[in-house]
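Hey L., structure's done. Input below.
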Amino acid sequence: MSVKILSSLLALVLLAFIVELVRREKLTFKYAAGWLLVSCGGLLLSFFDGILFSLSRFLGFELLSNFIFFAMIGVFVFLSLLLTIMLCQQNIRNDRMAQKIGLLENRLEKIERGQGRKE
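Output:
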């Protein structure tokens, strides 16, 4: 089996897996977008490998494998950064929600105390 076929199959499997996770609502599109771009990019580069060779030579890599490892590390660092940003946003939303729940509980206690006095 040639490397071109193997890399195409791996990219297709990754793409199908991500689409299936989104379809089953195990993964939201917001989080899947980065992975979809990575899998589509891998699929594109597996068909047009000349782009990969040209880019690696332009950037000064002597071996294509070194460039691929460098690119994959860069992609994973980028995806980790995206997920960290989304996690921080979720933490901020959770803090706001906890504060609003606390305020609502405080109001409810005041209302219950006020009704208890009237009866």
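The mean pLDDT is 89. The radius of gyration is 25 Å.

-- N.
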